[in-house]
Design a protein that fits this description.
single chain, 355 residues, alpha/beta, TIM Barrel, Elongation Factor Tu (Ef-tu), domain 3, 8-stranded parallel beta barrel, 18 strands, elongated
Length: 355
């Protein structure tokens, strides 16, 4: 079984840096657990280092309850109308954009005698979820006018860097502040939370501030991978090796590599390309797309290259490596966002914590 190792001390250092940076910018930090989910060791580390608000992007079959959670977490995905009963049982707040879904949430709250808060998402340019800015005030008015309203309106939020690759700029960082002030002025409705996501905002915060009304930031990728998405580079003050993926060598052989005279597509439906030719040292590792996203892995050994991937094997070329691999050896990799998500979610990957 392949291993995903979590360096708890490096994780704690990343969290402490981010919490300090967010506080200095006047921001409360929400820790996003898209990959790990309700992982007790990780949640405990996050709490011990200053995070109190947690966000989940999916609803586990048994709910995200964990004794280490200080309160009901936030559901950071738009809820499916069919999941609303489960969602309001397990989450105290959710992000929303559709008025029909919001009305249905309220109906469930009335029927089950529950309470729940919502944050209205605004599309500020990334073209993913959110009401268009010109429709926000009217949507908030409709929320406020829901009959027998049991849900609370917490505020507004936005997301950048996930769909269109939109990054913060002078214009889009002001939209939420202007809308918060407009809601309060025109409707007399308090906007307590003005939330932005995600880790792409860290690049902006290096040299800019955010408007005073923005008071929450949702961070996940930077915590675990130490990088700034959309810019595809490591943050200079964060560890990018909190997570290391380890594959076990199953076979090592020297093979004559070249184009096959009669070839079709590989196991994943791609046309094979021979990156190297001639006598090459190859090793088979004990993981494939069932365990992680192998093409999102970066070998720690600069002389190792991934050359083939299928469901449960990854083939590497280690001709240029200084190591002499044999069955039972481990090959280690850093991870990107996709490989992290798939490794945490895979039932075939063993998660190991290093303290």
């Amino acid at each position: 079984m392949a291993q995903l190792t979590v360096d708890i001390e490096k994780l704690a250092r990343n969290i402490r840096f981010l919490v300090r940076s967010c506080k200095a910018a006047g921001l409360d930090m929400m820790g996003i657990l898209k990959g790990p989910g309700p992982d007790s060791a990780i949640i405990r580390t996050m709490r011990e280092n200053g995070i109190e608000t947690f966000g989940f992007s999916s609803i586990p079959r048994t709910g995200p309850h964990d004794e280490t959670l200080p309160q009901k977490p936030v559901f950071i995905s738009l809820p499916s109308i069919h999941e609303i009963p489960r969602m309001v049982r397990h989450f105290g707040t959710s992000l929303n954009s559709e008025i029909s879904v919001i009305q249905r949430i309220n109906e469930v709250l009335v029927a089950e005698n529950r309470s729940h808060n919502i944050i209205l998402m605004v599309d500020t340019g990334d073209l993913r979820e959110g009401v268009l800015p010109e429709n926000v005030v009217d949507t908030v008015r409709k929320i406020h006018d829901i009959r027998d309203r049991r849900l609370g309106f917490s505020g507004i939020g936005t997301n950048l860097g996930c769909c269109a690759g939109m990054v913060p700029d002078e214009e889009n960082v002001l939209i939420l502040q202007d809308l918060a002030l407009e809601i309060e002025t025109r409707l007399g409705i308090a906007v307590e939370t003005v939330s932005v996501g995600g880790s792409v905002f860290l690049e902006w915060l290096k040299s800019h501030g955010l408007p005073d009304r923005i008071n929450q930031i949702r961070l996940g990728e930077a915590i675990f991978l130490g990088n700034i998405p959309a810019f595809c580079r490591k943050h200079e003050h964060l560890h990018d090796d909190v997570l290391i993926f380890k594959g076990d060598v199953l076979e090592t052989q020297e093979k004559n590599v070249g184009p096959c005279p009669h070839s079709g597509v590989d196991a994943l439906g791609f046309s094979p390309v021979a990156a190297f030719k001639g006598k090459r040292k190859r090793a088979i590792l004990n993981f494939g797309i069932s365990d992680t996203y192998p093409l999102g892995l970066r070998p720690l050994d600069g002389g190792v290259f991934i050359v083939c991937v299928n469901s449960n094997y990854t083939v590497i070329d280690y001709t240029d490596s200084q190591r002499s691999l044999k069955p039972g050896d481990f090959v280690e990799f850093k991870m990107n966002y996709i490989s992290m998500l798939q490794a945490f979610m895979s039932p075939f990957t063993d998660i190991v914590y290093h303290y």
